[in-house]
Design goal:
about 375 residues, alpha+beta, Serine Threonine Protein Phosphatase 5, Tetratricopeptide repeat, 8-stranded antiparallel beta sheet, about 15% strand, globular
Length: about 375
């Protein structure tokens, strides 16, 4: 087994396990990551979205949860198959939303052919030197690689060291996508052995100060809303989403992108409950913060249409299309609202929609509907 030597500073490792792709977009798209098949399963029978009570019952031993903002985290050290430290993160609903594992001596992956095959199919996300001091001392440089994979609702990362062509696993983590960026703030505690910079390591169970601040609570509430609205645990729950986004707004989100998107998402959840006036209000608040977001403008147009405000709906859809010419959904919505009053233009918009929507599986049902409407309009 390996023993990690001098490594990057803490700041240099900040995004090694938690590469924060979530910072780039707030809309969780379908995962385009490669398959995450693995025969190395540090979670065992535990799964993301399990309840904290069932987790505790499974382990059948005294475990002390620690505060993690509005949620909790539990650390378990195991000696099975070599020493490992597992960190389990629960949200305020008591659902497991992420888990991370570090292996101080490394895990040889030779006995795990499925994971090795998966890793061989993944492009490296990041490569880095573990022992940067060797650049000064003239010693051997050890290179580790971060791989990233996942499924529809979660992301998994592996930090792997190539040692004599045999891959050695140093750390792995899996998390529901909406919570990905939040676990980044636990990085310094998660892998202190990797981040040996000559300074004292943080206390093993000590959370970073940010987790006790309202801005962090706001981000947790936002993530809870995302997980509920987009059914990260299999069921869409608009009531939890409404409560979560309302809390996020009240706590005070730290940047205008999330401030705007919290109002947008809250509007989407309110629409599920038929509260159209409240939905319109929050869509408009989102646009007051960030005025030119085509998706929000399009969604506002659908609310105008549902309330019989045809002219405002048309204006919204047209604006969304001006901002994003290839916006298929807005083209369909514009055609839909134009159909009773301007069939010629509606026909043109439906045909444009078909061209733009081709090849997108999520548009299959809408494509079939557009084709039927085109046939109907042509046979009038």
């Amino acid at each position: 087994m390996i023993r990690l030597r001098k490594a990057f500073t803490l700041s240099g490792l900040l995004c090694l396990i938690w590469l924060i792709s979530a910072c780039g977009t707030l809309t969780p798209p379908p995962s385009r990551l490669p398959p995450s098949a693995s025969d190395f399963k540090p979670l065992g029978s535990i799964q993301l979205c399990d309840s904290q009570s069932s987790f505790l019952a499974t382990h059948k031993r005294s475990l002390k949860p620690h505060s993690w903002g509005t949620g909790e985290t539990i650390k378990i050290t195991s000696q099975q198959n070599g020493k490992s430290d597992g960190f389990y993160f629960f949200n305020e609903d008591g659902l497991l939303i992420g888990a991370a594992f570090r292996f101080p001596d490394g895990v040889n992956l030779s006995p795990y052919p499925i994971l090795r095959k998966t890793l061989s199919q993944l492009p490296p996300t990041l490569e880095f030197f573990l022992n940067s001091q060797s650049l000064v001392d003239g010693g051997k440089l050890e290179t580790a690689t971060l791989y990233r994979t996942g499924d529809k609702t979660s992301t998994t990362r592996y930090i792997v060291l190539k040692e004599n062509s045999s891959p050695i696993l140093l750390a792995t983590a899996t998390v529901l996508d909406p919570y990905e960026s939040l676990l980044a703030q636990f990085q310094n505690t998660l892998i202190p052995n990797l981040a040996d910079s000559g300074k004292p390591s943080p206390k093993e169970d000590q959370l970073p100060p940010q987790s006790e601040e309202p801005a962090f609570w706001a981000l947790q509430a936002f993530a809870r809303g995302e997980a509920s609205l987009f059914a990260s645990c299999g069921t869409r729950d608009s009531d939890i989403a409404i409560a979560a986004y309302t809390k996020a707004i009240a706590y005070g989100l730290p940047d205008p992108i999330r401030q705007s998107e919290a109002h947008h998402r809250l509007g989407l959840a309110l629409r599920d409950k038929g509260r159209l006036a409240d939905t319109q209000m929050h869509f408009e608040k989102a646009l007051a913060i960030r005025p030119n977001i085509p998706e929000v403008i399009n969604n506002l147009g659908t609310i105008f249409a549902e309330q019989g405000q045809t002219e405002k709906a048309i204006a919204s859809f047209e604006k969304a299309i001006r901002l994003k010419a290839n916006y298929a959904r807005a083209r369909f919505n514009l055609a839909d609202v134009l159909e009773p009053i301007n069939s010629k233009r509606a026909l043109e918009e439906y045909e444009t929609y078909l061209v733009l929507a081709e090849g997108f599986p999520e548009e299959t049902a809408r494509i079939a509907l557009a084709q039927k409407r085109i046939e109907h309009l042509k046979n009038r």
